[in-house]
Structure formats: C-alpha cells, structure tokens
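Cont'd.
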Amino acid sequence: MSARSRRIAGVFLRRFARALWDAKLGLSVPAGRRAAWARQIRLACEELGPTFIKLGQLASIRPDLFSAEIVFELEKLQDSVRPVPVDAIRARIRSDLGSNPEELFASFDPVPLASASIAQVHRATLAQECRPACGDTLPVGTDVVIKVVRPGIERIIAADLAVARRLISRVGGIGALKRLPLARFLDEFEESLASELDLRNEGRIADRFSFDFRDDPLVVVPRVVWRRSARRILTMEYIDGWRLTELDSVNRAGIDGYRLALHGAEVFMRQVLVLGRYHADLHPANLFVTRDGRICYLDFGITGRTRPEQRIAIAQVLAATVYGDADRALRYSRELGLEIPLESEDAVRSRVADILASTMGGPGPSDVRGFAVGFLSMLADYRIEVPPGYGLLVKALVTVEGVSRALYPDIDIAAAAKPFATRLIAREFMRPERIAERMPHAIAAALREFTR
Amino acid sequence: MSDDFMRFMATWALVHETADEGWKAAVARGVAGEGGEMTASADAFVDGLSAMIAEEKERLKAELSSGRTEPAGDKGDVIAKLDELTFEVGELRGRLETMQASLDAALDHGEG
C-alpha cells in the first residue's frame, strides 16, 4: 500500500469513526445520521485535496445519487488551495503557447489572483487587439485573466482515482456504503473531469452563453481571447466587480439588488425553458456584480441541458411549486421521469402538499431550499429514484434562490416567480395543439352551463 | 397559429384601447402577477394572457409608428439568422486561433 493510499484510507476511517460518534453510534434519527455522515465526508474531501474537492463538488450537484444532506453539505466545500510557484505556471504557458507570458502579453502579474483545485489564475494585459467570437474587439491594453491548469494535476487525479477505486472495491459493499453507486460515480467523475481539464470547452460554453444573452444589457460574460488560449490555458477578459460572496452593505448600496436578483432568476428560467442549456454550477462565488450594476457569469465548467419536450413539464412543475399545487407538481414530475409507485402515490402527494405548505405557503418568505431538502428526503424515504436531469435542476433552483438572496437578502423568490409562472402557463395554453386537445372539453363544459 | 392569434388579439386591443376598462385592469393584474391560485386558474390565465397581448400590442404600435410595411416576421428572421451565422464564424475563428497558437508552440519546441 502506497503512502497516499494509507493517507486516504486513514482520513476516511478517522472521519467515519467521528461520524459514527456524532450520529450517536447510529441511534440518532435518520436525518441526523445522514447529516453527521455528510459533514465528515465534506471535511475528508477538504483534507485530501484537489481530487477529492472536485469529487465533492461533483457530488454536490447529484441529488439523484446522494442524499439531500450530502448534496447540501458538499456545496460548502472550499475550493481554495495553496498556489503553484509562478515559475511552474510560466513553464506551462511557454510549453503550450510557445513563449513566456511576458512576451505574449503587455504585462503579466506573477502574484496569482486565485488558486483553486484545478487551475490557477493570473492577471495580464493584452499586447495585441483581439476579436472575440461574440461582442466587440478587445483593444491593446485590455485587462485579462489567464487561467492555467495546475501543472501535474492530471497525474495527481489519476493516482488518487486509482486509490479510490481500490478502496471502493474493498469497502463499497459494507453497510450504508453499498447503497451508494460509488463505482459508477467515479466513472462519471473521470469523464466530467477530462472535459473540465480541457479549458477550451469552458471557453466555448462562455461564448455561447455570451451570444445567447447578447441583447441583455444586465448580463456580462467575459470575452475569450482565443489566440492566447490552448487546452490547458484559457485567457479571458478581466471583469471588475464584487463576487457575490464579497457583497457587503457598502458596495450593495450602489446597486439595485432587487432588480438584479429578479433578473438573475429570469435569466436562469430563460436558459432552462427557452434555450435548453443552463449554468448548473451557479453558486455565489461564480457570479460577479460589476461596478456599473450588471451580473457577470463566470466558470462554465458544469452545464445542464433540457430537451424541448421536457421544458413544458419543467415549466409546469415550477409553476405548481410556486403556487403550492402538489397534484400538478407530481403529475408533471412523472413526465420528467420520476417514477412514483402506485401504492405510495397518495402518501407521496400528501407529503408533498405538507412540504409545500410548510416551506412555500407560510406567512413569511418562501423557502425553496427547505422545499428541495424536504422533497428529496421524502423521495429517499420512499426509495424513489431521482432522474439525473431532474436532480440537477432541483439543485440549480436552490442555487438560484441562494444567488438571489446574496443580491437581495429579503427577496421571496417564489413570489417573484409567480407572474413569470402565470405567463408560462398562459403561453402553454395558447399552443395550437393544446387548444385542439382542450376544445372538446371546453365545448362540453359550456354546453353543460347552457343547458343547466 | 398562436403568433397569428396573438397578433389578432393585439390588433383588437389596439383598436379597443380606450374603450375597455375591464381589459386594462386585467392587464395590470397580469403584469403584477396577482392572477390568483393556479388550481382555480381561469382568472390567472386571463390576466396573464391579457398581459401578453398588451406586450404584443405595444410591439404592434411601435411597428406602425415606425412606418414599417413588410411582414413582421421576415426581417426579424433574417437578422436572427445573420446573427447566428456571424457567431458561428466567430466560433470557428476562435477554434482556428487556438489551434494555430498550439501549432506555433509545437513548432517552436520542434525547432528548439
């Protein structure tokens, strides 16, 4: 057993022992047990470094595979690691772009702007003008950021994954672990990470997002400098502003937070329901508010897709949720692949109605996160599988609420969504096939009224 | 057909703009989203629809005042297609530029 294998096994053993203790040796209530495990899994990921931080981040958007407690706990993972020495970054730029950064750019800042598990970011300024795929030309002297994949990270990830696979083959069948599809998750993780390590993919998604919202004056996406980008390097326009995590009362005073929060929610709805592709990793650290009060979207590593036939059902589920209509929410959830056994149907409907009433129907602001946690836990209790796209969407919705609250803490996102939901339904009713489908019922109802 | 329907309703709304206070109230409720519960959705539906028709009416009004006579869809479609095409060319240019950068770097290493 290598030193790294021993360390990984040791950290997990220690954390699991602690989880066992925190869960009162399994005697606490199921949700309490799951929360204790979730917390220790998060701490283990942070302790074990980049591969496990990334694994945790990916698990945090998979409520179809992991419990609500794990998903929402892993969302708190801190992705900030010790920077790589600038000489290693310089060497990578030289190897991938042919010259030192000082020759490629008018200026290059050796002090990193950020250092995360996969990549490190440095500031620079353009030495040549650049024409992006979408938007105006970037002139000489434009401030840019250079995102560079950490040298050696591919090797570290491959080695850690090999250890993780060996561990899973030994302990994956024991106790609660056997309910988690860990081997399948590792396969998906490997595939997703390969895509994320090729930064050109992120650049292309950013370009597409920028194009999709080209007419929206409140949305900003950094333009990509393709001639200074390669597989492991992405150069993008620098946008000045505050991350949502940095917004305080002083800088919040200069922006219209309520308007931005509403607009952010509408942008998300447009992505899901109209464009069919959405930013699925929209936590407050991936969003900026510019100094002129616009929303800037960053980090397009994880995106979701919706098919046209799904979008109608999603619109109906969203509308049903904000209006507290359990029956409709479940009916259209079925169309999205949620399989509720007939024998549990009444009980599930009643539980959903309770959760809706307690989280969305009370006198105070609605609580989308509370609804999602309750709903996903209820599905786990009834052993109802969550379809992958459905889970990603539920998680993304919770994130939208979090982002909106970071912009405007008192916002009630469900109340704000009601006009949007009403219009969606009206639009849906106006589709010719819906009119044709409903016309016989409408005529029959009208005749009943006349002949009464 | 639904676009034609909306256009027809917008035309009706434009002609009857000053006459119908009930209609104006429905639009106001639809815009404000006070349409009521979806389970008893008839009112919410009418209000939401009224707001959509009012939006279409404003577009129609702007078109008429700008003196445009060509069918509304045609010019918009051409512009959208041109936009999409321009973006695709931009995307391809980006791909070529990044490939060129990688190729130049590889050649430099080969020569070095």
